[in-house]
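Title: [Solved] Spermidine/putrescine import ATP-binding protein PotA 3D structure

Original question kept below for reference.
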Amino acid sequence: MSTQPIIRFENVSKRFGEDTTVLDGVSFEMERGKFYTLLGPSGCGKTTILRLIAGFSEPSEGTIYFNGKSVNQTPANERQVNTVFQDYALFPHLNVYENVAFGLRIKKVKKPEVDRRVKEALKFVNLDGYENREITEMSGGQRQRVAIARAIINDPEVILLDEPLSALDLKLRSAMQYELRELQQRLGKTFIFVTHDQEEALAMSDEIFVMNSGQIQQSGTPIDIYDEPINRFVADFIGESNIVSGVMIEDYLVEFNGKRFECADAGLQPNEKVDIVLRPEDIEITPVNSGKLTVTVDTSLFRGVHYEISTYDQDGNEWLVHSTKKAEVGMQIGLDFIPENIHVMRLNESEEDYDARLEAYGAADED
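Solution (posted by the thread starter after getting help):
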């Protein structure tokens, strides 16, 4: 298999008019056969990237490569890409068979071949036997499968998915996450998925691109993104986080809340100001005299598998804790954590700076 990236963006920008920049000098590569997720808040540029890959829009600056060749001027119908839209864009007046066959009929494929490929695509998405069903009679999950069957029937190299789960209820949405991931692995195609749902991205992806304000803030595996965010935005956007200001005293020693703690980070300047991240699930509740911090319980909500406990310390910092232990509102408790769970972030650190620091100190190999 070729090691050449299937998609590469090189300093790509997209502007509307003189004052609106939706993508600002974005560069990245995507490998063949992986599940990628573009994750970020509304207006961050993730759907714009999808439209640029599909050929529905052209970059204002920069170059988009597909299999090593520029596709800036390649029309959408000549790209080996198909899109599953947020509303699925199915034809309500056509039945399941005709919706899936639509692209083949446009290409004037002969009827026996259309029959074979439609049945094959429907069987692949577990809809064999539904050929004559009307779209209006299908559930949300079934409609999504029809849209996917229509997307894969022409054997594209890349399948784009623009928030296709957003209209589904929570239970069906969770089920479809597993189905989509399993489908991608069976097909062996490159999937590029757009969402603003962090849990969805973490559950489904080989690699996540976290976006904000037209730029990629960080890219990496779900574990990398969650465990080692490079800045406050990523830490705050990916899951719930406790973020406080601190000072990196020296390698493996950080100060916050007026105390010094051992940590696993190195490579910053002595006494450099930093942000500290502690995930709620990485904090243990202890008796006051056993904890590294002493806090007061503000609220405690039962979430089924854990209690979500909001606390505050004497300096007014809020600390969120996920624990199987119950804590009553108003009581003082101790909080404990191990050095490996203290994540130190350089202020305004770029992804390149962060990668260089990991390499210099061998942290990437240790992970």
